[in-house]
Amino acid sequence: MRRFFRVLRDEQGIGVVEMILILVVLIGLVIIFKEQLTDLVNSIFKTISSRSGSI
After folding, report:
1. pTM exceeds 0.70, yes or no
2. Contact by Cβ (8 Å): 37, 30
């Protein structure tokens, strides 16, 4: 029983869990806003392409 409570108090794995949660949230945001992000990137590349001829 003491070993069980010792495992619960051990905080070594907390960093890994936090990183996984952050990644899940970021992936979720990308999935939700996929269309808007694609439109934004396409417009940025169009602007770069059109202005690169003037250099």
Report:
1. no
2. yes
* Alpha carbon distance 17, 7 (integer Å): 15
Question: Tokens 């940025």 identify what position?
Answer: 44
In whole angstroms, give the CA distance from residue 33 to residue 39. 10
Residues near 30 by beta carbon (within 8 Å), at least 6 away in sequence: 37
CB 29 within 8 A of CB 22: no
* pLDDT tens readout for residues 2-22: 776 676 666 666 777 788 999
Structure tokens at 51: 């202005």
Residue whose entry in the numeric block shows the structure tokens 């970021």: 26
From the CB of residue 45, how many other CB atoms can be counted at a distance below 10 Å?
A: 10
